[in-house]
Amino acid sequence: MKLQVLSTSDSHTFWWASNIIDRDAVKPYGLFRAASTMAVVEQMAKVRGDFVLKIENGDFIQGSPLGTYLANVAVDKSAVFKKMPQEMGYDARVLGNHEFNFGRAYLEHIFKDDESLLNANVLDEETGLPFIGKAYNIFEKKGKKVAVIGLTTKYVPNWERPENIPGLLFEDPVKIARDLVKKLSKQVDAVIIAYHGGFSRDLDTNELLEKETGENQGNELLEIPGVSALVTGHQHRLLSGVYKGIPISQPGYRAEAVGQLTVDLDADRNQKASDTTKCPSARLIKTADWPEKAKYVNEMAGIKADLDQWLDQVIAHLATDLILENIPKARQEGHDFVDLINQVQLETTGADLSATALFNDEMPGFHRAVTRRELLGNYPFPNTLVSISLTGEQLKTALEVNAGYFSLQDDAIKVSQAYQYPKKQDYNYDLWSGLVYRFDLTMPLGQRVVIETVNGQPYDPKKTYTVAVNNYRATGAGNEVFSKGKVIKDYPKPLTTLLADYLEKHDGLVIEKQHNFHIDK
Q1: How many CB atoms lie under 10 A from the CB of residue 315?
Q2: What DSSP designation does 10 have?
């Protein structure tokens, strides 16, 4: 008998074939496309008599405006987070890092009595047990038993606001998995690990791809004896293959693919590679060519209508459009939309300087009549604001990190490979306000930044400056320098609320591009 493990991960509440920002645009992804994909693949597998397990691998309740709407506006409708996975037939669900963005209480509400939730390493401090869910589950069919262990990256506390994760311990998933696999291997025919995390090293060469912080421990999980298959996520990468005899998958972002891992339950654990009929296999099935599952689209029609009505409400007016037509160019030259965000951060905190990122290339900017759809399209995360003190030397080091975002190739400015592989990290490049600065790309890394003035005064490397950034950056994520600064104040309101309040207060606001940044080549 063959075991088929089908998985999605990091769908981030993109359920329809839409990015929701462009209301009528049809996109090549979405959970309802994945539902059609899995239904057909599952049916074919069952006809062959295969043992099928379906896994939802985390970051399921946050990401698009749908997640924000259900968490903050229509909590009474949030039961769909349990109902929809049940209808789709997921056997197991795993917590992602973004599951914690709305707080522990919301998670306990969402997953109350959900028998499919597997959580082996996020524990309650008092009991030492999973704070919700259970560590693993054993599934049985025709005398064959398969265990699935659910794990979450232990790095969550490095990003998440403490008030969102009170009383929680994020234990090392590798240590937990090693103990559980050893125990379960004696009871079952196969042990599957579903891990919301990825790989810090290249799977073929073992070359280091990123700093090993413990965020992505997939390579270590592959070393555990007795693991039959490994489902991963978090990095939004498209990965599949068999490594060390173990099939792995990582099905990207927004349900753009379904992972399919195949394990022969009758094969010897030390099966020779020459017997390909019994060797494990792995592949990704792109969902772009599959239609949305009509049943679920119809069921969600009421919520979709309410969501669209809420998103299309005009919340403020500007004097002119601030449209982001060419985001890569805006990262090189600055943009009045970025200046607006930094202006709000400066006025809220009273800081000397402000830094913010253009998170992805889909950000729409603002039309003159600003809608909630645009607001959440530009700022999809429930980040808050933090003011931090940095010395002038630390400020320059932080800017040097930003200068490393660019490289020169044949005299053309390009994005450095380090920000594109193993995953795109545009969200880690900041544009600043409050100073005039330049990047000289002809100079080596670490020697590119020239700070001309700070708030009209000469730059002083010994002086202390205050900087306004979001809480993600304040932890040092994407730029370690910020973790070395002293936190002056933490502002609890989400940045989307601060932006909306600011725009409403300054009706007809005029924003002029600062022209405070230049790249030399």
Answers
A1: 17
A2: -
- Cα(327)–Cα(86) distance, integer angstroms: 39
Q: Which of 400, 494, 455, 452 is nearest to 164 (CA)?
A: 494
Question: Which residues, listed in sequence order, are joined to residue 491 by a DSSP beta bridge?
Answer: 385
Q: Is 25 exposed, middle or buried (0-12, 13-18, 19+ CB in 10 A)?
A: exposed
Pairwise CA distance, residues 133 & 93, whole Å: 9
Is the model's pLDDT at 55 over the cut of 90?
A: yes
State the chain's mean pLDDT as an integer. 95
Asked if residue 357 lies in contact with residue 430, where contact means CB atoms within 8 angstroms, the answer is yes
Q: What is the number of residues in the chain?
A: 521
User: In a 10 Å sphere around its CB, with 0-12 CB exposed, 13-18 middle and 19+ buried, how is residue 180 labelled?
Assistant: buried
Bond prior to 422 in cis (omega within 30° of 0):
yes
* 431 within 8 A of 356, measured Cβ to Cβ: yes
For residue 275, what pLDDT band results from cuts at 50, 70 and 90?
A: low
- Token couple for 142: 């025709």
- Cβ neighbours around 392 below 10 Å, total: 16
DSSP assignment letter at 479: -
CB atoms within 10 A of CB 47: 8
Answering whether pTM is above 0.85, one says yes
Question: How many whole angstroms separate alpha carbon 335 and alpha carbon 315?
Answer: 22
Instruction: Retrieve residue 129's tokens.
Output: 């047990």
Count Cβ neighbours within 10 Å for each residue of 348-369 and write b for 16 or more, e otherwise. bbebbbbbbbbbeeebbbbeee
Task: Give me 367's structure tokens.
Answer: 């039309």
- CA distances for 505 relative to 56, 368, 402, 509, angstroms: 42, 15, 32, 9
Count of beta carbons in the 10 Å neighbourhood of residue 232 = 29
Residues with Cβ within 8 Å of 447's Cβ and at least 6 positions away in sequence, in order, are 400
- CB atoms < 10 A from the CB of 310, how many? 17
- Confidence tier at 500 by pLDDT (50, 70, 90): very high
- 284 near 3, Cβ under 8 Å? no
Alpha carbon distance 100, 162 (integer Å): 10
Residues 6+ apart with CB under 8 A from 24: none
List the domains of the chain with CATH numbers.
Answer: 2-307 (3.60.21.10), 313-520 (3.90.780.10)
Q: How would you write 54-111 as a 3-class SS string?
A: EEECCCCCCCCHHHHHHHHCCHHHCCHHHHHHHHHCCCEEECCHHHHHHCHHHHHHHC
Count of CA atoms in the C-beta half-sphere (13 A) of 276: 1
The pLDDT of residue 269 is above 60: no
Phi, psi of 168 (to 5 degrees): -110, 140
- Predicted local distance difference test score (pLDDT) of residue 447: 97
DSSP code at position 226: T
**Helix, coil or strand: residue 198:** coil
